[in-house]
Amino acid sequence: xxxxxxxxxxxxxxxxLIGFAFLCLIPFYYILMxxxxxxxxxxxxxVILFPKGFSTKAYEMIIRDQKFFRGFGVSVFRTVVGTAxxxxxxCMFAYAVxxxxxxxxxxxxxxxxxxxxxxGGIIPTYLTICYTGIFDTIWALILPMAVNPWNTxxxxxxxSALPEGLEESAVIDGASDVKxxxxxxxxxxxxxxxxxxxxxxxxxxxALMDAVIxxxxxxxxxxxxxxxDLVMRSSTQxxxxxxxxxxxxxxxxxxxxxxxxxxxxxxxxxxxxKFFVKGVMIGAIKG
Amino acid sequence: xxxxxxRLYRNRYLFLMMLPALVLLIVYRYIPMAxxxxxxxxFSFAKGIFGSDWVGLDNFIFLFTKHPQFLQxxxxxxxxxxxxxxFYFPVPVILALLLNELKSARLKKWIQTTIYLPHFVSxxxxxxxxxQFLMPSTGIVNAIIKMFGGEPIFFLAEPKYFRGIVVITEIxxxxxxxxxxxxxxxxxxxxxxxxxxxIDGASRWQKMRFVTLPGISxxxxxxxxxxxxxxxxxxFEQIYVLANTQVYLVGDVLSTYIYRIGVGQAQFxxxxxxxxxxxxxxxxxxxxxxxxxxxxxxxxxx
Lengths: 287, 302
Prior knowledge:
Number of helices of chain A: 14
CATH topology of chain B: MetI-like fold
Number of strands of chain B: 2
Structural class of chain B: mainly alpha
Helix content of chain A: over 70%
Largest sheet of chain B: 2 strands, antiparallel
Domain ABC transmembrane type-1 (chain B): 74-289
Strand content of chain A: under 5%
CATH class of chain A: Mainly Alpha
Distance between the termini of chain A: 44 Å
Distance between the termini of chain B: 35 Å
Structural class of chain A: mainly alpha
Order of helices and strands of chain A: HHHHHHHHHHHHHH
Organism (chain B): Cuneatibacter caecimuris
Radius of gyration of chain B: 25 Å
Number of domains of chain A: 1
CATH superfamily of chain A: MetI-like
Shape of chain B: globular
Keywords (chain B): Cell membrane, Membrane, Transmembrane, Transmembrane helix, Transport
Oligomer: heterodimer
Number of strands of chain A: 0
Largest sheet of chain A: none
Family (chain B): Belongs to the binding-protein-dependent transport system permease family.
InterPro entries (chain B): MetI-like, MetI-like_sf, UgpAE/MalFG_permease
Number of domains of chain B: 1
Strand order of the largest sheet of chain B: 1-2
Largest interface: A-B, 95 and 100 residues
CATH superfamily of chain B: MetI-like
């Protein structure tokens, strides 16, 4: 009797969790299903729950769309260069601040913490970007994101936890701070650097707000801006019925573009997963 | 004095390593803070941030007495955050408690992998899919409504549904990832407590209630306080993607308004005043959250 009751509870728990997991998967299922269905049937509104008539036409059209490619290129550039720059700059800073013999160490730490708690807000940051001459250039997407105070704090706490004996023996052997950083501290901190690096890369790839505010040049619009234009155009059309019929990107094209732009995330996801499961939990606080 | 100089000299490489980040931090984080002075000025591009004329508290007086939407914007921001606090906040706690009950490690890992995934997708992508789901002509939701003989509803153009949609999409996108801190806290619960509870004949629910929940209550309180500290802040991208002119009355929040009017119509001073108000209230909230945390647990939030 008691055993049966226990199993019942477990089944409910299982159902609730699996149900939520499916809820999370439905969006991905939906874009896959629609984008690979026959565009003609999608237009008729016949593809609602299950795929109909396999076709890669939508993807062929996306691949031929120059704007998509340009957006993809901008996103790849900002992600690769932005992440590399952010990691080098933040690691060097964090390592230096984590050294106990650094003069003014406490003050530098306070400078970073205060930047987490308080910020100038949208408009003053926008004006600063205008005055420093990077408005409407690719650097507007890279430089302001290069130092993330929160990630820097995590890196500082990580470097601080490195055993001091290693550094002391290196100093006795005549190594300089720079040498210790590259030869000892960096290799020892690979998991932390990889975790923060992956989070930084994901946020670069997904960022929309900075492109919306700092970029006007259509050649410099990243993929996320391209996507929102694509989707917004069709939803305003549905709402106001004002645009010409042939201009509307069909649902098939929209879903194909969405899937193509999410693919890089899906490819790196298993690695991200591996790293945060491995235990640099502190990086999780950020999300 | 000489000793101090020697110390600085010994640190020369460290200072050199700090320099690039320090410059970026000062230029893109601290100069904007100084730029907040334009909330007290009549900003003109030609005169620059520091050369523009002072107007004292005029911008703030205008905001609180004459500005047509300001109080509505503050309320929209608070309303969305309060709804999130009520309906979103408990979800990761419940999910973590349920995950903890799963015996099968494989199922647990599969569920974790799945529910973390939406967190890594951009709001543009996730929001676009939601928009398509809710379309009156082609969306799944309306297809189901039509199947049961109902009238299709254009959810995203109806003010009464908007805040609900914001909270529900937030739950699907972020609640799974939100479990990660609770799951981390769960690993630190002493397994002997469960054994002792079993020997005393505690049921699954009793163990959950009296062993697991107290084990993560510290984390719950800390995250709750942090959430309260962010009360004036709604994620810009979520609203930017989901909202449209039809629902601005309930869905327009401080950040989207600042962007639209500030960047879009170049009304820099008044929007900076709104931003400053938002930041200062945020700072006060987080400082009081920290104070509460110190009183409760004798430690800082950060």
